[in-house]
Amino acid sequence: MGFLDLFIVALIPILKTLIITAVGLFLAVEKVNILNDTARHHFNNLVFFVFTPALVASSLANTITMTSLIQLWFMPVNILLTFMIGSALGWILVKITKTPQHLHGLVIGSCAAGNLGNLLLIIIPAVCDEANSPFGDSSNCSTNGQAYASLSMAIGAVFIWTYVYNIIRRCAMRSTDSTLSIRCFSENSTMMFQNGLSEALLSFKDEEIHQVEDQPVHLGKDTSVYDGGHEDDVDDKVAFVVKVKQQFKVLLASLNLKILFAPSTIATIVGLLIGVASPLRKVLVGQSAPLHVIYTSAAMLGDATIPSMTLIVGANLLKGLKKSGLGVWIIVGVQVVRFIAMPLLGILVVKFAKNFGLVGSDSLYQFVLLLQYALPSAMAIGTITQLFEAGESECSVIMLWNYAIASLALTLWSTYYMWLVS
């Protein structure tokens, strides 16, 4: 296929996304005012708690089996690498541009998390349906492509709502609002963490600490294990145990299990369980399944995810048209990371994996792996900033330029990737 033909194939799905984004932007204009701040906040909650989990669970249950899961084992590794590489580049960008402390999480998250769900679910089927598609039969391409996109979306959702969510949350927290002083990616992160633990330990009730310290230690008759029974050695050992116990309590208190098991994470587990377990799959998935109405209902809710999140991004872009305190070099840096550095490094990673036989010979699979490095920032980042009501305007500016440039950059990279694997 010629470059122009591949370019047209890659352009169609991008145009679909831009049209829906433009509709969201129009609905947020003051004269229309349908997607105002309040509406977007409630809309985000619906996406987070209902639409995304339904889409993740139904897509995985329908497309992933034990065989396909084994064949696609490298995809989770590839996605993890995108987050690691993006985080490292984002951290470098934060240091170079001297980004304000409360925006560290936003910048790093924007560099690390790509739109691994929505765009792939739009791009892959659209590419497969084109007459000049380089990936062969349209039916097989669509089936395999949906499986690849669904798994990518599920794994990406887990990373975004655990890793990126917590980065933005912690960086948005003010030190005065928490006994544990959290600093993100600072030069003295180890020292700050220790200081934070010390401050948190002081918040424990004095009587609880004294109760532990004043408890008698029963050593028994034989005290030879303490070097002759010296009381100083015994006290040191007891004090050490007490300190370890206290620090362990602080670490447990700092873990947020509710966020670790976010709705999308639980949906991923449920979807994989249904898809992999043949008896459950036969009961729920398919027109002949006795409980197919449950799966169908979840799929209907999931169908609302992509247009909803795309509309939200379009509405959030309205703020990006207004002035923001975000520096120009920060905006430029995020675009360079996402559309130049990441795609180039992605070629090296996938080529390396292919040479060592880690990804097989399926050209569509390789195309999806490559595309995961060239996507714009995840739409969920806008949802996260809205949930915390922190950095919304800055996020809107980044997203505005991100998706404006993506219309050209993603088209060009998609064209080149299709030429590379075909």
Automatic annotation (TrEMBL):
Give the GO biological process terms. auxin-activated signaling pathway; endoplasmic reticulum to cytosol auxin transport
Kindly give the Pfam families that the UniProt entry links to this protein. Mem_trans (PF03547)
Name the membrane topology term: Multi-pass membrane protein
Q: Which residues cross the membrane?
A: 6-29, 41-61, 73-94, 106-127, 147-168, 259-280, 292-314, 326-352, 364-388, 400-419
Q: Is Transmembrane included in the keywords of this UniProt record?
A: yes
Name where it mostly resides.
endoplasmic reticulum
Which spans of this chain does the record mark as coiled coil?
Answer: none
* Cellular compartments per GO CC: endoplasmic reticulum membrane
Which keywords annotate this record?
Auxin signaling pathway, Endoplasmic reticulum, Membrane, Transmembrane, Transmembrane helix, Transport
Can you say what this protein is called? OLC1v1010429C1
Q: Can you name the source organism?
A: Oldenlandia corymbosa var. corymbosa
